[in-house]
Design brief:
By secondary structure, the protein is an alpha/beta fold. It has ten helices and 16 strands.
């Protein structure tokens, strides 16, 4: 917020005190009447066929399950996740129909995590959990849930809505009643929250990609501020081929995509692929484990030399060397120095978002003297 770095240049203490009082009144009015004033992050946008932050960086998040567990994180763990683990989002499984309570029953816990994200400059992807009943949905509960939550966070610019976790087992084509539920939920959410990004479908398996792309394109919704969520089950040994085919099929219909639950047994290879291809993801690992149990996340990111330019802190940027993921695979074509936005490409100074070799663009760059550079085919983000 622009109010964070206010400087006073008045010579008298009384004048300074008066300015502080006036500023306090203005802030009080803003906070009382505008929930947008509380938001620390701008809304996500679509770039290069995935959702990205207000800075153009990928969403990289951790799980917060509130449906069958209470994984409300501590502030200490959030601080570690944010500053030392390279992440910038929570994926909240908020409630589930099997609770036998109406939608909105968990609001105290959900509010707390949504506010915690806001206070820490993080994003939230909010969804209905399955509570073990994956591959099914309860229409009454879906309607109740979004009647309650869609208007509640409509002005929270750091919040994204995901209709329902894994509503069908397990991949496209979805049954007609599932497609109707998705379309109805989209219309319901959009009525309450016209500006909030909506994630659809939540495919457990990204197989049958042509059918997935066709049924999404035929839903009759606008994909300008919506995208497809997917998971990475059922693709063992075929990860690169399946994901690339899934992306290309959706891309051909003008539909963006984000992984909201990678298979834990495949997370090393899929993380490499997501970073290579520039696809946002939220890990199926809770904040506590990411912050405190190194074997769950930190160690394998390091041992596999996976890196990116984080929103906060310096990890997992490499200390030396160039890691080129995306663009011309395997070729070191960029060198840069001094600052995040000043680079030297093949001996010629360029800036972020400037064309480099063969029409590719710098997408992300590390903050160190030498570090991570991601290349993309387009400068439009």
């Amino acid at each position: 917020m622009s109010n964070k770095n206010v400087k006073l240049s008045f010579g008298h203490a009384f004048r300074a005190q008066q300015v502080f009082c006036n500023a306090a009144v203005v802030l009080a009015v803003l906070f009382a009447f505008s929930t947008d004033a509380l938001a620390t992050r701008g809304r996500v946008k679509i770039a290069n066929n995935t959702i990205v932050t207000d800075r153009g960086t990928l969403i990289r998040g951790a799980r917060v399950s509130l449906d069958i567990w209470d994984e409300t994180p501590s502030q200490a763990d959030v601080t570690t996740m944010k500053n030392s683990r390279g992440l910038n989002a929570f994926h909240i499984y908020a409630e589930y129909a099997g609770s036998n309570r109406p939608g909105g029953y968990n609001v105290t816990k959900v509010d707390r995590v949504v506010d915690m994200a806001d206070e820490n400059d993080l994003y939230v992807i909010l969804t209905i959990g399955c509570g073990g009943a994956n591959g099914s949905f309860n229409q009454t509960f879906v309607t109740q849930f979004w009647d309650f939550y869609a208007p509640r966070y409509k002005n929270k610019t750091h919040v994204v809505y995901e209709v329902m976790n894994e509503p069908q087992a397990w991949s496209a084509p979805y049954r007609d009643n599932v497609l109707k539920m998705e379309k109805d939920a989209y219309d319901q959410i959009r009525k309450y929250a016209p500006d909030t990004h909506i994630m659809m479908m939540s495919y457990s398996q990204p197989n049958n990609w042509t059918q997935a792309a066709n049924e999404c394109a035929n839903l009759g919704i606008s994909w300008d501020n919506a995208s497809v969520a997917f998971h990475t089950y059922g693709i063992d040994g075929r990860e690169d081929n399946v994901l690339t085919s899934f992306y290309n099929a959706l891309k051909s219909k003008g539909i963006a995509y984000t992984c909201t639950e990678p298979n834990l047994t495949l997370q090393v290879i899929t993380t490499k692929l997501f970073e290579r291809d520039g696809v946002s993801q939220t890990y199926f690992i809770n904040v506590r484990e990411i912050a405190t149990r190194n074997s769950s996340y930190y160690d394998w990111i390091n041992s596999n030399n996976i890196s990116w330019a984080p929103d906060f802190g310096n990890w997992p940027e490499p200390a030396v060397g160039i890691i080129n993921r995306g663009g011309i695979s395997g070729k070191t074509i960029v060198d840069f120095s001094n600052t995040r936005r000043e680079f030297n490409c093949l001996g010629k100074p360029v800036s972020e978002n400037s064309p480099v070799s063969n029409g590719f663009y710098i997408y992300q760059a590390g903050k160190k003297a030498r570090g991570t550079v991601n290349l993309k085919e387009s400068s439009n983000y």
